[in-house]
Specification:
Strand content: 35-45%
Mean pLDDT: 92
Helix content: 10-25%
Radius of gyration: 15 Å
Order of helices and strands: HEHEHEEEE
């Protein structure tokens, strides 16, 4: 496994209707590095957003979609998604405020 730093773990937030509803319960959704595990994701969130405490992390691997261009078939890259649940006394993530 490659040496992954905490700033390489979280790639970008997922902004969908379902993820926005989860923010009311302090659940935040991120696209993460495909080789990152739950412990790495927990440490990355706590380091990148000071004052946050992670209660749990749920991950899911997403297979690449099949795309076609003419008669040629190919697949998009695999991704990994993480849903991070913060504790009740934790600070909220300001990245999502005002959306």
């Amino acid at each position: 496994m490659a040496n992954i730093q905490y700033y390489d773990v979280i790639q970008k937030p997922v902004i969908t209707e379902k993820s926005m509803q989860g923010m009311a319960n302090k659940k935040y959704t991120f696209l993460v590095h495909p080789e990152a595990n739950k412990v790495m994701i927990r440490e990355a969130v706590e380091k990148m957003f000071p004052g946050t405490k992670v209660a749990s992390v749920n991950t899911m691997n997403l297979e690449g979609k099949t795309k076609r261009r003419g008669m040629t078939f190919g697949k998009t890259a695999k991704t990994k998604k993480a849903i991070v649940q913060l504790t009740a006394d934790s600070k909220e993530i300001e990245l999502f405020q005002g959306l």
